[in-house]
Amino acid sequence: MTSPPITLPFAKGHGCENSFLVLPDPDGRLRLTAETTRRLTDSHTGAGADGILRAVRCADDPEAAAMAGAAEWFMDYRNRDGSLGAMCGNGIRLFARFLVDTGLCAPGTLAIATRAGIRRVRVPSRCQDLQGPVSVAMGTPLFPGPDHITITTAGASRPATHVDMGNPHAVVFVNDPADAGDLRTPPTAEPADTYPHGFTTEFVAVRGPGHLALRVHERGVGETRACGTGACAAVAAHRRRTGQTGAADYHVDLLGGRLHIAVLPDGDMELTGPAVITAQGALHLPRTA
Ligand SMILES: N[C@@H](CCC[C@H](N)C(=O)O)C(=O)O
């Protein structure tokens, strides 16, 4: 006799076509392994996505319990390969849209806990059609160095800037994002110890004042249609390279659409873009998974 499968409620959605499965787990009962993550995010064995956002109350997750006084919900982010991630600019916007549209939170500004700390996300209203722009305060970019990094991909080596947006990025400037070539093989970095836990790479072209375009290779995923922390890292590296300071607005074009980044007078960045719920239902997992 075979056991019935485990049934998990889920939503699927995207931010600029960077896609995620949202798994509501309010009381922290779900044990999500790397293997289960890979199975669920694979389009053949699951619903397919770039990553998973498990929605658990901070008070009910040992990893986030210390943040329970400041945030109700913890975004437990998992990359498609099963690795844990700290921050996800598109994911956290979809996460907040999910909490608001399913009635778990009221519209307005939500404090959400992540492995990179607490982020404030603004969801202006509940949307009848489960979509609409969402903004997140991303904090101030850091430049951990070293000053000279080389990124090699598809046989070409180029200088890069190390930017920390709560997760590690290498920003490479190119004439056109297409110059990055085939991104099926992960880029490599020199010095090799720059990124002990891996990195996400942005290939960025300057299109005009306040206007960038990029392609991205994400740590733990591969090439994706968009990356929110990556778009912020690109703006940060561009401002550093050109000596820009003070408040300014930018838009960044990605394969999946456009993200807006406002740099505030204190240097903090606010990221805005679409957050769209595309499906809701139940996922089935064999008991052995
Ligand atoms: N797509 C995300 C970033 C997700 C995490 C990344 N893959 C990592 O491992 O740091 C975004 O929109 O920021």
Automatic annotation (TrEMBL):
One Pfam family per UniProt: DAP_epimerase
Family, as annotated: Belongs to the diaminopimelate epimerase family.
Enzyme class: isomerase
Signal sequence coordinates: none
Subcellular location: Cytoplasm
Superkingdom of source: Bacteria
List of catalytic residues: 88 (proton donor), 88, 227 (proton acceptor)
Residue positions binding substrate: 18, 79, 89-90, 167, 218-219, 228-229
Biological or metabolic pathway of the protein: Amino-acid biosynthesis; L-lysine biosynthesis via DAP pathway; DL-2,6-diaminopimelate from LL-2,6-diaminopimelate: step 1/1
Gene name of the record: dapF
Lineage: Bacteria, Bacillati, Actinomycetota, Actinomycetes, Kitasatosporales
EC number: 5.1.1.7
Reaction it catalyzes: (2S,6S)-2,6-diaminopimelate = meso-2,6-diaminopimelate
Quaternary structure (record): Homodimer.
InterPro entries the record matches: DAP_epimerase_AS, DAP_epimerase_DapF
Site annotation Could be important to modulate the pK values of the two catalytic cysteine residues: residues: 169, 218
GO MF term (any one): diaminopimelate epimerase activity
Protein name (database record): Diaminopimelate epimerase
Keyword terms, alphabetized: Amino-acid biosynthesis, Cytoplasm, Isomerase, Lysine biosynthesis
